[in-house]
Design a protein that fits this description.
- There is one protein chain.
- The chain is α+β, with helices and mostly antiparallel strands.
- Helix 3 links the parallel strand 3 and strand 4.
- Strands 1, 2, 3, 4, 5, 6, 14, 15 and 16 form a 9-stranded mixed β-sheet that branches. Strands 7, 9, 10, 12 and 13 form a 5-stranded antiparallel β-sheet that branches.
- The chain contains 12 helices and 16 strands.
- The chain binds (2S)-amino(hydroxy)ethanoic acid (HGY) and manganese (II) ion (2 copies).
């Protein structure tokens, strides 16, 4: 009975589409920023499904939500999870797939009348994206005790509201204790968000780990002045230094090559007017690499460049770390199981690192963890055109089903 158990691909696609209607953007895609009203509505929908499936739902102080399916024995559950918050130009699959595929596994087990020895859990963690409140993976960091709750609650988002205020306004918090996780193993199904699987013709990725992440916010302060009357030699143009940092970040990534990536995603000039030399710029630089030592070198070179160019322009520079994660390796036994199950399903599978951060990278600190990737069309993500074919979604969910069943016995 267990061997030919399958998930229901149509129902999985239907749930993804239903969740995708919340925070839907006019031209397609989603905006459900963490602890926004849209996030709250998405949570209500998913918690409703959890309850329909007979799961006991608990919510902790930052809104991490866990649906628990009893096993024939008590003890730490086998957990599937991910996130349902999105970036402002998000797609329908990033995060959502891992949560809804977990619910699909529960539905398949319920329909087949299968009880597992260990309890099963399906979780979504608050603010995985880190787009509104930094750092990313904030919820799973609190869940695992890696980030103090008080520090998180006082964190101010890019729109000025703190996490604590947003939790109060949206009533997303709950009474479950945070920071003392008891999880037997954690498996996260996720879209690759990159081009590798599709370009090389693989159906599944057995993810070996998550690359290191460094998010830095630079505040550059120069002098507002008249664009027409101020001689070039007298300028202290924060906008110029910001541009030099951005150009250097790209050149640095190209020079280091390999897995090094660099992104200037946010930049705000003040007063941001056509005829005023920029007085102040707040900008972010996202550096990542699978190798921690190289990532540190990249950081040091970037910081030195920012200091040097700011001094040359008579601009001051302040730096704030928004997020910093060293590379994480997943449990090799689980990675091997993902690979073996995918092969047994007749699916082409390859190992690869994750370029994106994930809750699995945080959960790996407290229990054996792994990830299953399925292809992203065109390697596109954090973009409303994000897409993964229904067959790929179902393939990934069936690998998830089999691995969860193995771990729960
Ligand atoms: O930034 C990331 O890698 C993830 O999407 N939070
Ligand atoms: Mn994600
Ligand atoms: Mn994401």
């Amino acid at each position: 009975m267990r061997n030919n158990l399958r998930i229901n691909g149509e129902r999985l696609s239907w749930r993804l589409a239903e969740l995708g209607r919340i925070g839907a953007l006019p031209g397609g895609g989603n905006c459900r920023l963490a602890l926004s009203d849209e996030d709250r509505r998405g949570r209500e929908l998913v918690v409703g499904w959890m309850k329909e499936l007979g799961l006991a739902v608990t919510v902790d102080a930052v809104g991490n939500t866990v649906g628990l399916r009893k096993g024939s024995e008590d003890g730490p559950p086998v957990m599937a999870g991910s996130h349902i918050d999105t970036v402002a130009t998000g797609g329908a699959y990033d995060g959502n797939l891992g949560v809804l595929a977990g619910l699909e596994v529960v539905a398949a087990l319920n329909e087949a009348g299968i009880a597992t020895r260990r309890p099963l859990a399906v979780a979504f963690f608050t603010n995985e994206e880190g787009a509104r409140f930094q750092p990313d993976m904030m919820g799973s960091l609190v869940f695992t005790g890696a980030l103090p709750l008080a520090e998180v609650l006082s964190t101010k988002g890019i729109d000025g509201e703190t996490v604590g205020e947003a939790l109060a306004r949206t009533a997303c918090a709950g009474p479950a204790p945070a920071g003392r996780p008891e999880v037997h193993a954690y498996v996260e199904l996720h879209v690759e968000q990159g081009p590798v699987l599709e370009a090389e013709g693989f159906a599944v990725g057995a993810v070996e780990g998550v690359q290191g992440i460094s998010w830095t916010e630079f505040t550059l302060a120069g002098q507002a002045n008249h664009a027409g009357t101020t001689p070039m030699r007298m300028r202290h143009d924060a906008g110029l230094v910001a541009a030099e940092i951005a150009v250097f970040a790209r050149a640095l990534a190209r020079e280091i090559d390999g897995n090094q990536v660099a992104t200037v995603g946010a930049m705000t000039l003040h007063p941001n007017l056509v005829n005023v030399v920029a007085e102040r710029v707040v900008m972010t630089v996202d550096l990542r690499n699978t190798d921690e030592a190289i990532l540190q070198q990249a950081e040091h070179r970037l910081f030195a460049l920012a200091e040097e160019r700011a001094a040359a322009e008579g601009v001051t520079v302040e730096r704030r770390c928004l997020a910093r994660f060293a590379p994480v390796a997943f449990d090799p036994r689980l990675v091997a199981r993902v690979e073996a199950i995918a092969r047994d399903e007749g699916l082409m599978v390859r190992r690869l690192p994750s370029g994106a951060g994930h809750d699995a990278g945080i959960m790996a600190a407290v229990c054996p963890a792994c990830m299953i990737f399925v292809p992203s069309a065109g390697g596109i993500s954090h973009n409303v055109r994000e897409y993964t074919a229904p067959e790929d979604l179902a393939n990934g969910a069936n690998v998830l089903l089999r691995l969860l069943l193995e771990l729960a016995e």
